[in-house]
Queue: 3 jobs
Job 1
Amino acid sequence: MRNLPQGAHLAYWRANPDTLHVMVVRSDGSYVWQFPIVRDGATEFGEMLSVQVYRDGFAAFRQAPEVFAALSDPYAPDSLDEVEERLKRLGAVEQRPQGGEVG
């Protein structure tokens, strides 16, 4: 992730079985931005997943385009477990933000 703020790293955490947060975390544990990926149900083709980008999360498109490329290559993930595996391959670590402060 070449565009991340200095000293920050890519991380994720499972808030519950249906929500996985993708974020960039500062060294103090607070996050720079985050966005959840939510399981919205299932169809005959697999789980329906949605990305919910809040105001602070739009920086992800500029700072971590590799995340979006990994989530779509060569096809969309079928489950949150697969999302987690793809994030791990990018070097993301499992970590809940400490402060939750955005800025």
Note: The chain has a mean pLDDT of 87.
Job 2
Amino acid sequence: MEAIAHPGFLLTVAGIVVTLVAWFIRLESKVNDHGKEISRVEQSCEDTWKEFDYHRSRPEIHFDQRLASEVERRQGERMGRIESDVKEIKEIVKGIAKKD
């Protein structure tokens, strides 16, 4: 029992206890900081998804199937007119070639 009551032993145990308490306080501070960081990242992620949904909902930015089919239809009409013009030009050239 005298060894436990020795001032050197008590000072050592007190130092260990103080160190453990300080270490736990530091650990709690780190956990709180991580909690704050996780909350900040989650909020940033939510904001990013909101911006993505807004961006995706804008039809003037992304591919629009209706618009694409309209463009394709108009290009087909244009190509048809060009082909008919080329046929007319060929007939005119053939007519000129026959006269010579």
Note: The mean pLDDT is 87.
Job 3
Amino acid sequence: MHRLLDEARRMPPASLSFARSVSNVWPPDHLVNLREMVRKHYRGDLGTLHTTLEEHLPDAGAQLGVYLAAGEMALMEAVGRSVLPAEDRRALRKLWDTLLQAR
């Protein structure tokens, strides 16, 4: 969780341009149960991550939802890392990593 919070605080302003091009963010269908488990059992961590993103990106406006969804999927990857196949881990981190690498 500390890694995700550190990454959220480093989210570059340039990521807003990319976030504007994203219309829908969904985890793969077969990971919806993991999403529900994270929402139920890691609610506090998810709330902290969302608050960190909101504070770090106060001008995100409508794009904030992209960051919140990407953060949720990154948390899903962190929670399920030891049991998820590499392909699922990559899929869950893809948007988060893309936002982090924006220049």
Note: The helical segments are 2-9, 15-20, 32-41, 43-56, 64-80, 86-100.
